[in-house]
């Protein structure tokens, strides 16, 4: 199998067309065929005990330990909708329609009851995490779609286990009551929450044990594997969800264990988990091929074909219907492309085969036909959907995963936005997930870290811890480059130096290009105080309020607001009056060529002027339309008034003859007023000082 994996990755054209899981199944089919040709009995390689106790746990632990917590928790509601409601819909839709088809067809299928059909639907309804991992890691889909499909495949285990055991018992008993349905719902909650509880308990035990392993670094990785496997076995003993227990154990223990163990132990855990999960995945697909050749098949065209079709139809309807509901509550909506990838990525795998293999032939005489249909569904999803999903992702231009890690700048801004949103929720009195995440972080820093992490590490701010991690990287690079003997004595305590220093340093070493800066304890403490005082902390919750529930102060009559508004209006009026000096220009003479051309442009028939009383120039306008005025009078801003002062200056004004005019101001003569006539610049600023009046006005 390992040689096949090597050859598979050495041929890039093959790996771009065929997924690795398909190739491994083909290898299993070839091995099973060779055993058959040799007339030997094929061993039952994929029996349920071997699969559930030895092959499945490493894959789930690898997924749970390296689970991206942030996107998983942000999309937890969507994942649970797909995992719980979607799996229930698939099971009842497939089982119910299969029962109807079996009753309609004139064949031996009429003997199959509704409970065995629902049992078959519960087996083939769940998305398989092994198949999803094998395919989705090769197509490098974006993080949102990956965590939605993969999270669904992990969390639907509880639903599958409960439905499987319920329908198995109901099929044996032959009767179902309302009480059985209520107990089924309660058992689902017990199975799911019990598995999570076992996993969290063993995760805390692993973290507590790793606190005391600083003197025996060799056995540090062993505790991570042992406690995880104990969580899985303990959950399986009580018929709880072992997959949920492994996920909870890996996610809970990782941050505390990595803070306590050495760098070498961390590398050991990482690569040993990857190796174990890769071996298990390889063996599962090969054994699946071998078991396909060995199995006793009972082929029924109607049942097998309708099983494949109903699996596809149920998946598409479930994803589209649930997404329609989910998008009403999501900020980042799931697009049509996302829905297609989620529906198309619902692969089935070896878990369904093992559950079918567990069925008792005495109670289920149609077991062989069920196994044949399950294998057909697995092969269709893995081969057809697994081989075509990569070209479809390229064709639809679905966003790919960003391979580069986030920079420090992105990390800082992400934390800043978390603090900001938590503060906004705090002010509004809204208990959102940012609020509860902040509460959990406070509890974790105040109590849990002090108990589970070594004392000198638990009190460090995240920035200092990150600085220590960078320092450690530089120290390792320095040792590898041959500068280990020049290391300063004050190296951070995150990793014991016995794990990175060479035992026998070379006698002649080149001087290191870069020596780590040595800080005194006092200086380091001073840096910590500066960081603690300047890093923003979200304030403690006081009285929660929002703008809809604000109560008016009975002792405040709003008088100060009125005064403030009045002062603002006076300031605005003053600014407007000051600006009028810049907005006005000297008016041209009424009989100047400019004014004549302006009148001619507006109305050619208004060229002749008629004298108007009070020596005010008037433009006579013949009625071109019912809306046109009889005449227009040109007044200057410092001209006559009818006794009351106008606040705003008036320029070119349209006014009926005989209107009131302003009296002259004291000390102002007619000649002076004629020379100082001004008009407001409405659309044309008028002729400038350096412009020639004889230039043509019209274009």
Main attributes of the structure:
699 residues, mainly alpha, Na+/H+ antiporter like fold, three-stranded antiparallel β-sheet, two-stranded antiparallel sheet, globular, calmodulin-binding, Cation/H_exchanger_TM, membrane, sodium:proton antiporter activity, phosphoprotein
CATH class of the domain at 1-396: Mainly Alpha
- The total count of helices amounts to 26
Strand content: under 5%
Question: Shape from CA axes?
Answer: globular
Low-confidence stretches: 484-515, 538-556, 609-613, 623-663, 678-684, 688-699
The description of the largest β-sheet is:
3 strands, antiparallel
Transmembrane segments: 21-39, 51-67, 79-101, 113-135, 182-206, 271-293, 299-327, 339-358, 370-393
Protein name: Sodium/hydrogen exchanger
InterPro entries: Cation/H_exchanger_CPA1 (IPR018422), Cation/H_exchanger_TM (IPR006153), NaH_exchanger (IPR004709), NHE-1-like (IPR001970), NHE_CaM-bd (IPR032103)
Domain Cation/H+ exchanger transmembrane: 4-394
Q: How would you explain this protein's 3D organization?
A:
By secondary structure, the protein is mostly helical. Among the domains are: 1-396, Up-down Bundle (Na+/H+ antiporter like fold), CATH 1.20.1530.20; 410-473, no CATH class. The chain has helices spanning 2-10, 12-17, 20-37, 48-65, 69-74, 76-104, 114-125, 129-139, 143-155, 157-173, 178-210, 220-237, 242-260, 263-294, 301-326, 336-344, 350-357, 367-396, 408-428, 433-452, 455-458, 462-480, 521-534, 559-583, 593-602, 670-675; strands at residues 584-586, 618-620, 631-634, 652-653, 678-680. The strands form two sheets. A three-stranded antiparallel β-sheet has the order 2-3-4, with no helix packed on it. It has a two-stranded antiparallel sheet with strand order 1-5. The termini are far apart.
């Amino acid at each position: 199998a390992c040689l096949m994996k090597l050859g598979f990755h050495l041929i890039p054209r093959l790996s771009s067309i065929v997924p690795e899981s398909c190739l491994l199944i083909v290898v299993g089919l070839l091995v099973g065929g060779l055993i058959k040709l040799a007339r030997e009995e094929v061993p039952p390689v994929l029996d349920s005990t071997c699969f559930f106790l030895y092959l499945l746990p490493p894959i789930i632990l690898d997924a749970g330990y390296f689970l991206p917590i942030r996107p998983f928790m942000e999309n937890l509601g969507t994942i649970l909708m797909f995992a719980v409601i979607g799996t229930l819909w698939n099971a009842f839709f497939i089982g119910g329609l299969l029962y109807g088809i079996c009753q309609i067809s004139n064949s031996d299928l009429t003997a199959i009851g509704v409970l065995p059909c629902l049992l078959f639907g519960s087996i083939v309804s769940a998305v398989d995490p092994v198949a999803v991992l094998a395919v989705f890691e090769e197509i490098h889909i974006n993080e949102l779609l990956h965590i939605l499909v993969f999270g669904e495949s992990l969390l639907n285990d509880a639903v599958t286990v409960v439905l499987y055991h319920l329908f198995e018992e109901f099929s044996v008993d032959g009767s179902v009551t309302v009480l059985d349905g209520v107990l089924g719902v309660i058992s689902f909650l017990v199975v799911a929450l019990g598995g999570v509880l076992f996993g969290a308990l063993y995760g805390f035990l692993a973290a507590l044990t790793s606190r005391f392993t600083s003197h025996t670094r060799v056995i540090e990785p062993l505790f991570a594997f042992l406690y995880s496997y104990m969580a899985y076995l303990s959950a399986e003993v009580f018929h709880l969800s072992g997959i949920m227990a492994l996920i909870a154990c890996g996610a809970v223990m990782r941050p505390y264990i990595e803070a306590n163990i050495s760098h070498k132990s961390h590398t050991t855990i990482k690569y040993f988990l990857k190796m174990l999960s890769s071996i298990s995945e390889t063996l599962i697909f090969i054994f699946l091929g071998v078991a396909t050749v060995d199995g006793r098949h009972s082929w029924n065209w109607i049942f097998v074909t309708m099983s494949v079709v109903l699996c596809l139809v149920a998946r598409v309807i479930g994803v589209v219907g649930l997404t329609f509901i989910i998008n009403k509550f999501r900020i980042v909506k799931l697009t049509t492309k996302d829905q297609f990838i989620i529906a198309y990525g619902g692969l089935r795998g070896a878990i369904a085969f093992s559950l079918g293999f567990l069925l008792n032939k005495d109670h289920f005489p149609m077991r062989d036909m069920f196994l044949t249909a399950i294998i057909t569904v697995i092969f269709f999803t893995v081969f057809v959907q697994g081989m075509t999903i990569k070209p479809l992702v390229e064709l639809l231009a679905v966003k790919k995963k960003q391979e580069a890690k986030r920079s420090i700048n992105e990390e800082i801004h992400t934390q800043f936005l978390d603090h900001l949103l938590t503060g906004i929720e705090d002010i509004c009195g809204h208990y959102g997930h940012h609020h509860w995440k902040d509460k959990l972080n406070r509890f974790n820093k105040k109590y849990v870290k002090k108990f589970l992490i070594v004392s000198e590490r638990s009190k460090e701010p995240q920035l200092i811890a990150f600085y220590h991690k960078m320092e450690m990287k530089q120290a390792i690079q320095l040792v590898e480059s041959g500068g280990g003997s020049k290391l300063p004595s004050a190296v951070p305590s995150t990793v014991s130096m016995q794990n990175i220093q060479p035992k026998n340093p070379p006698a002649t070493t080149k001087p290191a290009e870069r020596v780590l800066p040595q800080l005194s304890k006092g200086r380091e403490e001073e840096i910590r105080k500066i960081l603690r005082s300047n890093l923003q902390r979200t304030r403690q919750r006081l009285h929660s309020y929002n703008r809809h529930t604000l109560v008016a102060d009975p002792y405040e009559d709003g008088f100060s607001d009125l005064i403030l508004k009045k002062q603002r209006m006076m300031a605005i009026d003053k600014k407007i009056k000051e600006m009028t000096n810049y907005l006005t220009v000297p008016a041209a003479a009424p009989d100047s060529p400019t004014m004549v051309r302006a009148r001619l442009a507006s109305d050619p028939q208004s060229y002749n002027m008629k004298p108007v009383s009070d020596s005010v120039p008037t433009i006579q306008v013949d009625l071109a339309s019912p809306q046109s005025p009889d005449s227009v009078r040109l007044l200057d801003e410092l001209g006559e008034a009818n006794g009351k002062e106008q606040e705003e200056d008036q320029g070119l004004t349209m006014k009926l003859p005989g209107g009131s005019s302003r009296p002259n101001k004291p000390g102002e003569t007619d000649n002076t007023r004629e020379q100082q006539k001004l008009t407001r610049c409405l659309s044309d600023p008028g002729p400038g000082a350096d412009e020639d009046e004889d230039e043509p006005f019209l274009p």
